[in-house]
Design goal:
alpha+beta; about 25% strand
Length: about 70
């Protein structure tokens, strides 16, 4: 703020790019360029419970997840 603006070397896309290996080492899975056809919401809590994606073959696959980051 007082010393001017800062940004990650390589641009803002470096933040998620660098997070992928950490997520995968922790047992998570990162999907990129997946066409999301639905954001699934739990009826009892109203919280996001996963997503439905379309595969390259056109099949729809529901992925349940405790955390969804968009």
């Amino acid at each position: 703020y007082w010393q001017g603006a800062f940004y990650p070397v390589g641009g803002a896309s470096e933040i998620p790019h660098r997070a992928v290996p950490i997520i995968e080492r922790s047992g998570g899975c990162v999907l990129t360029k997946a066409r999301v056809t639905a954001i699934d919401v739990a009826d009892d809590t109203g919280r996001v419970s996963g997503v439905t994606v379309t595969t390259r073959t056109g099949a729809e696959v529901r992925i349940d997840a405790p955390v969804v980051v968009s």
